[in-house]
Amino acid sequence: MMAKRKTGGDNPLWSIGIALAVTVALVLVYGLVVGVVAPRVDPVRVTNPADLEGTTIQIEILNGCGIDNLAAEARTHMRRRGFDVVGVGNYASQDVDTSFVVDHTGDLQAARKVASAIGIPVEHIRQETEEDALLDATVVIGRDYESLFAFAERDEN
Description:
Strand content: 15-25%
Distance between the termini: 57 Å
Order of helices and strands: HEHEEHEEH
Strand order of the largest sheet: 2-1-5-3-4
Radius of gyration: 23 Å
CATH class of the largest domain: Alpha Beta
CATH topology of the largest domain: Alpha-Beta Plaits
CATH architecture of the largest domain: 2-Layer Sandwich
Largest sheet: 5 strands, mixed
Oligomer: single chain
Number of strands: 5
């Protein structure tokens, strides 16, 4: 009789090795997807036309669609990305359809960084320069909030 040959699948170390390799591959793919879908944005100002404090872009986040806690969730998202969120609250109107960013200082590059970090298209940046601006930009969250990075993450948690 022939002796039965042991295959790699019968060895517990082989199974552990395969499981470890699959786990590492999944982590790498997840990192790639997150890096492409929600790239890291440097939260530092390049210019400072309003002579604001510090070097970190300062923003406020306002809820414009009336759904509880959206501004607070977006604050957490933006702080994790290094932005200085100086306030959250409600926008004057609660029927905003499309989220947008308001540039208060004339630093369009800073406004673009804010928009990019949260997932708002740059076409939705409004420039409303103020002489005595106290912050770089305001994010107004609209009914399209589910398309923003800050809220896409809620499904992952």
